[in-house]
């Protein structure tokens, strides 16, 4: 189960990378601190999700991987949910009609 969530978070990270490349073309020369801060919050949420879903070296050495996932997995899913909620909020704010 942790491996499947790790793959899902990796797919979200790849999608985020390509979305940033597309956003860079869209905002050509128009980046400001507000945009940068919003993208940084999204990147930190993805990083937290990935860091919490996979075991650390300490937990890998002394416990079962499933126990580590049960302990930290819900926090990873909370970070992933916050990433999705924040990105949907940004999409609804900045989307143009039509």
Structure explained in plain terms:
- This protein is mostly helical.
- It has one domain.
- The protein has helices at 2-26, 33-53, 57-62, 65-94.
- Helix 1 (2-26) packs antiparallel against helix 2 (33-53) and helix 2 (33-53) packs antiparallel against helix 4.
- The relative contact order is 0.16.
- The model has no long low-confidence stretch (mean pLDDT 84).
Write a concise keyword list for the protein shown above.
mainly alpha; 4 helices; 84% helix; 98 residues
Calculate the mean pLDDT score and round it: 84
Question: How would you sum up the major sheet?
Answer: none
By DSSP (H or I, 4+ residues per run), the number of helices equals: 4
Q: Give the low-pLDDT segments.
A: none
In short:
The chain is mainly alpha-helical. The chain has helices at residues 2-26, 33-53, 57-62, 65-94.
Strand-helix topology:
Elements: H1 2-26, H2 33-53, H3 57-62, H4 65-94
